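Protocol step 4 of 6: structure prediction from sequence.
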Amino acid sequence: MFCNQCEQTAKGTGCTVAGVCGKSADVAVIQDQLIYLLRRLAALVLQARAAGIADTETDDFMVEALFGTLTNVNFDPEALRKMQAETLERAKALAARLGEKPEDLNVSLDEYLARLPESVVGIDVLSADADVASAMQMLLFGLKGVAAYADHAARLGQRDPELAAFVCKALVAGTLWDGEVRDLGGWLELVLECGKANLRAMELLEKGNTESFGDPVPTPVSLGHRKGKAILVSGHDLLDLQALLEQTEGTGINIYTHGEMLPAHGYPRLKAFKHLAGHFGTAWQNQQKELPDFPGAVLFTTNCIQNPRAYGDKIFTSGNVGWPGCVHCKGRDFAPVIAKALELPGFAEDEPGKEILTGFGRQTMLNAAPKVLEAVAQGKLRHIFLVGGCDGAKPGRNYYTEFVEKTPQDTLVLTLACGKFRFFDKDLGKLGDLPRLLDMGQCNDAYAAVQVALALADALKCDVNDLPLSLVLSWYEQKAVSILLTLLALGIKNIRLGPSLPAFVSPTILNILVEKWGIRPISTPDEDLAAILN
């Protein structure tokens, strides 16, 4: 195997024996083969589109399957093999609809896979040029992030055929079925196009979330617990959470969020459920320490799962996520989760716990914009920091805690994604009526943050890069890559990124990022704050 798609990749170059994330070499190979199969299917989908044959079901399947190869999503070889088989069957069926009988598809799955080169690593590098290979990897990894958001949006009924077409175009790029020859500049243009596609995917997802659950509003969330039976819900899928809340209403089971589910408390139609009791635990990478102490069932709805070790009997999965041996709930039927929760002891006593705030969504922030602009004009607000992104276990991430703690009292800190768990429970005080720490939501809510920044720039009649706003981001997996590509595509400059730079970015491309966008690695909190504010 060879995998360098996440920030924690071994030795900062690539995992070759087993994934730092916990995936085996066998699973890594199956995922890489799945990417290759999806590339073949994508070529046929593009032919079908040109012939006027639209197939939303196949579009949905492709983003779901691509999402399944993202870091910490699906570790179950059996489930991934079924996805491989379905990809090949869909390719054969689509070829038949086109009146074609491609020789390479007239085989079984095992025969098809046996024909693949041993060096398949999820990308067909037809050039020995290291910079082109780097750009191709940036595209693939960014595309996985796009697929994650597009999959979430599709589950909420939000789709865009142009977005689906781009997914196919990007998958086919650089393969035997690609009709274009690109130099490095052409590849980087496609990488930025991926950033724009991700903006559209996040826009669709925000629309799906707000239409389904209402606009998020500032909401206090307890970090304590209530006496009684309990279920912990992790991941990102709000629709799964809603279904579980509906199925547990009146059962006496309390529902707690974990990780990126924290922002769910801000949505009016979710917070209306009285048994949505609070939040348990911190970031995803701490689950092996924290989940053994949770006295109820645990449901993982999307990525971020780790090896459940000795507590796997209380772990359940849904959607794209999978772990060998864990019960997978299909069709949002959470009866097995509920049965396990009733079997386990639950919390013996009430424990109020500290309260934190979440729910500072786009509409809330836009409503607060006049106060923000007034504070800037009066010199009461010197700077706004967006500090967020993916958290992880690699050393160096305490930087983000220290950075936020050292921000001056005349500044605001916006945050989103699981990076906030480095400081989400810190009391930074207030600036006027606004808390200094404002949680804008999940990683996909980067779309909301971008829209707020653009609105402030418009009100001040300046470029977004001229705002008193700095982005200090942490990254871990491919959704963070897609968001970074979105920011670059929008022309946002001077982003600080850490704790390390991506292993798949070549020195030449890194130099382009530095020269054109001013992207730079984090240094120390004191040095970076001084450079930003002076």
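Step 5 (inspection) to follow. Residues 121-126 have pLDDT under 50 and may be disordered.
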